[in-house]
Amino acid sequence: MRILLLLTCVLAILFDLLAIGNAEGFSVTSSIPDITLTAERLRFPDKKLLAVYSGPGEEYMRGANGKAVVSTSDWIQVFGKENGWVMIQYAISDTHMRIGWIPEQDMPEGAKVEDLDFSHITAYTNKTTSITDDPLLSKANLLTLPEGCWVTCLATMDNWAYIESTTGDVLRGFVPTTDLRTYMQFDLRDWPVGDIPVLEGILTYDEATSNISIKIKPAKNCPITEELIALIVYDGISGKELYTIETKEDDGTFYDSFVTIEKTTSLVIVGKDFKGKVYNEWAVKIEW
């Protein structure tokens, strides 16, 4: 089962609920629709403080300058578990909540918690962005990631992506989905053969969809002097031919896109001229 954190929330209602409280003296839990992931409110033994981490393990960053805790005297919502850790949400104040993780051993006796099965999709920041552990209210910043930083996208929650980052501090949190892209872009000028530029233009690879898009042409002063009629794309790992691109603009730019069933971390592009010669000696290899 693939769990998507598709949780929607009306902020005005949330503020009202958190401010009202209830007859027991506990704050009221946030309103999370029962869509794909259900969050169950559990009562824990009173008067305990449990350390909270941003991910399922003590190696993950801990909020509040390393002092994040949850009080068992208030409400705690439980989303599910992973590797002996439980994903929870709790209130820090009327205007600030936190989504984090506690050890499964701290759960109430007899509590049954379902396993979480996240997606693990490589993504990249397309701008400087902030990670938060509270996408519903405060959106307080945990860490800022620079543009072009790679992360693992685990799930989505409305307009937020739940990610894991290992750039510097290891942590999980939320960033706006608009701040991420799942595709990689390669400028072929940065991938010469030795020191000699062979191709120029952009190749895009989307790991999530296995789509490859190409708009490239022979570089200026390319060592291949014959006119090319096709570019052949190979898997750089297995050597398997993936696709042949033959559509070409008047200026010699080859363009096309295709979906490959091969999951790869390397592509090789080889030119073919009108005589049928394939220029393997000038093969351009891209790796990531």
Reading the helices and strands in chain order gives HEEHEEEEEEEEEEEEEEEEEEE
CATH-assigned fold name of the largest domain: Immunoglobulin-like
Radius of gyration: 25 Å
* Overall mean pLDDT: 86
Q: What share of the residues lie within helices?
A: under 10%
Low-confidence stretches: 1-36
Query: Going across the major beta sheet, what is the strand order?
Result: 12-11-10-7-13
- So how many helices? 2
- Cα(first) to Cα(last) distance is 29 Å
How is this structure best described in words?
It is a single chain. The chain has 288 residues and is mainly beta. The chain folds into three domains: 11-106, SH3 type barrels (Roll); 121-182, SH3 Domains (SH3 type barrels), CATH 2.30.30; 184-287, Immunoglobulin-like (Sandwich). The protein has two helices and 21 strands. The strands form six sheets. The protein has a five-stranded antiparallel β-sheet with strand order 12-11-10-7-13, with no helix packed on it. Strands 1-4-5-6 form a four-stranded antiparallel β-sheet, with no helix packed on it. A four-stranded antiparallel β-sheet has the order 14-15-16-19, with no helix packed on it. Strand 5 and strand 6 form a beta hairpin. The longest helix is centred in the first third of the chain and has 10 residues, at 11-20. The protein is elongated, with a radius of gyration of 25 Å. Mean pLDDT is 86; it is low at 1-36.
